Amino acid sequence: MILLEAAKLMAVGSTAGFAIALVVTRPLSLFLVPGLSPSDPAIFAAAIAVLAGTGLLPRHGHRPDALLAV
């Protein structure tokens, strides 16, 4: 249940972030080295995969006691 909710949030965030990144990379392409593409699909796929992988990792372990952390 929790993993499904996290996956839904990740899908919405990845879709919105991908769309925003495509829009923002166009003006920034002026600063790129000639020959580089501002919207390389492999880079976008790798970034989404890394963020999804870290976002969906199981959170094992316990929460430390707040008084002990201080």
Q: N-to-C SSE series?
A: HHH
- Count every beta strand, where a strand is a DSSP E run of 2 or more residues: 0
Q: What's the shape?
A: elongated
Helical stretch tally: 3
* Rg computed from alpha carbons, rounded to a whole number of angstroms: 18 Å
Going by helix content, strand content and strand pairing, the class is mainly alpha
- Helix content bin: 55-70%
Q: End-to-end span in angstroms?
A: 33 Å
For the sheet with most strands, the description reads: none
Query: Averaging pLDDT over every residue, what do you get?
Result: 79
Total count of domains: 1
Describe this structure in words.
The protein is mainly alpha-helical. It is elongated and about 55 Å long. The protein has one domain. The two termini are 33 Å apart. The mean pLDDT is 79. It is built from 3 helices and no strands.
Layout of secondary structure:
Blueprint: H1 2-28, H2 41-55, H3 66-69
Helix pairs in contact: 1-2
Please summarize what this structure is.
The chain is mainly α and 70 residues long. It has helices at 2-28, 41-55, 66-69. It has one domain.
Main attributes?
single chain; 70 residues; mainly alpha; 3 helices; elongated
